[in-house]
Amino acid sequence: MLALLSEGPYIAHNDLPIPAIWFGVIAMSTFILLAFVVYSYRDVANRHDHKNSSSQGH
Fold this sequence. Notes:
mainly alpha, 2 helices
């Protein structure tokens, strides 16, 4: 037991495949891309002017 304590803490060090800042850059760009896709679908239901209230399903 004393031999384990005298060795000090063992720290396993794993290198990241890319620098840490790039994980945030990739995540932010993904969210911006998805926000653009969601934004592009706005007002799609109002593009169909030929439909009136009697032809709606609900």
